[in-house]
Design brief:
With 255 residues, the protein is mainly α. It has eleven helices and no strands. It has helices at residues 13-26, 29-36, 41-59, 62-75, 79-92, 95-113, 121-126, 131-145, 152-178, 187-213, 218-254. α4 runs antiparallel to α5 and α9 packs antiparallel against α10. It starts with 12 loop residues before the first helix and ends with a helix.
């Protein structure tokens, strides 16, 4: 299931050369477990709680990264790229708050259903900077402070492409397990699946225009894209591993 069916994919060297990395992402064990295999509803709930908490950490500095990427591109004479980053910065404001609110709603629902194993949303959010989240931020810093700040675009492209390609699968799993009425508690996921379709098409167009003017940028964009995909897969690993630890403890309490 994908929402990309009507999205225009501009054919260029970036798209062609990113396919192996996207394929590698698709076969990562954690990606298969979450998106394509049957997952116990209780584990799915715990995954969504931890994914939302870590997403708050993942997205918190993104507006700042986009602003800085825009400034660096402006310094290098790439006015259109700078304007793209500035515009995208506004769109990303407050997403960490969005994820934080979902954590609170999901934990409240969990605590009602599991009176013998209570979770603390504050504690979960205090641990939102997992090792993979920190590495993801290091990737942004490396790109923005490096010689190719426009490579921030590749991170945007690939992470939002994950939302539109894999997000609907996770959304469907959630609805199948929890019902349509539970959607308000996963608004961060739900709205990203909806909104990132338009973002992805815009991103593809921006990459195409950039490479038409600067084909020499292809190598670093492709490398950054692969780094972003690996980083996000590691992020999913952290969220699922945290969820599994709690799932094991819940099972032991019930035994």
């Amino acid at each position: 299931m994908t929402t990309l069916e009507n999205t225009q994919v501009y054919q260029n060297e970036y798209q062609r050369r990113c396919e192996p990395a996207r394929k590698e992402f698709s076969v990562r064990k954690v990606v298969r477990e979450i998106f394509t295999e049957n997952i116990d509803p209780k584990l799915l709930k715990l995954f969504m709680i931890h994914w939302s908490a870590l997403s708050a950490g993942l997205t918190e500095p993104i507006p700042n990264y986009l602003q800085r990427a825009g400034q660096r591109c402006e310094e290098k004479g790439l006015k259109e790229m700078a304007e793209f980053f500035y515009e995208h910065e506004e769109e990303e404001e407050g997403h960490d708050n969005w994820a934080t609110e979902d954590v609170k709603k999901l934990v409240e629902a969990w605590n009602r259903e599991e009176p013998n194993f209570q979770l603390d949303s504050k504690e979960l959010l205090n641990e939102k900077m997992s090792p993979a989240v920190k590495r993801y931020h290091q990737l942004h810093e490396h790109v923005i402070e490096g010689n190719s700040p426009w490579d921030e675009l590749a991170i945007d492209v690939e992470i939002e492409l994950i939302s539109t390609t894999y997000g609907p699968l996770l959304l469907k799993n959630w609805i199948d397990c929890m019902g349509q009425d539970s959607l308000p508690s996963i608004s961060f996921l739900h709205e990203h699946v909806r909104a990132d379709v338009g973002h992805t098409e815009t991103n593809f167009e921006v990459v195409h225009k950039l490479l038409a003017q600067h084909p020499e940028y292809t190598d670093t964009l492709v490398k950054t894209a692969g780094d972003a995909l690996n980083s996000y897969a590691d992020f999913l690993d952290d969220a699922l591993n945290y969820a599994k630890k709690v799932y094991t403890r819940v099972s032991e309490v019930r035994a």
